[in-house]
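On clarity, I found the account of how folds are encoded harder to follow than it need be. What matters is that the chain and its backbone geometry are given together, residue for residue. I therefore recommend that a typical entry be quoted early in the introduction. An entry of this sort, consisting of the sequence and the corresponding backbone structure tokens, reads as follows:
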Amino acid sequence: RPETPFHVPPGEQVTLHVSTPLWLRLGVGEPPRRLLEVPLHRPSDTWFGANTLDGDVCYASATRFVVRLDNAPMAPHRATTAVRIRNRAEVDLLLDRIRLPVASLAVFQASDGRIWTNDVTLDRREATEFAELRVGKGEPTQAAGAEKVAEPREVPTGNVVVRAFSKLLQAW
């Protein structure tokens, strides 16, 4: 959730920098066998969906959706994701809550120490809470030369449509 919800007009796009908490994974052997996986900071649980019957359990984190990277604080226990949101629908998109599929993102470390994930594009074509999700291939655009330190937990399979935008328990 942003600290202050805002609108993306029809035909416009915005790139936001969103930070999410990292998880620590311990493993042994080759290939590594997972022994332990814990969050460095565990966000609270929330429901993400249009109503109590249609949605998903997710983690919640109030964050500043910053447009300029120099306004984004660098924290060693959080990863930064560049999220491009395209509103191709004919009505405004209220950014009250977004769902970021962090399990589908690899983790990178830039030379300045900032932790990044792949770039993400959410392409909204209709006046619904759904958007086409595209996960960038390779290193983040704004962190050229970043070293990959972890593969995604779930391998994304091409472009998929996901419930990406939602107002808390309010039907569209």
Notes: Residues 100 and 164 are 7 Å apart (CA to CA). Residues 167-172 have pLDDT under 50 and may be disordered.
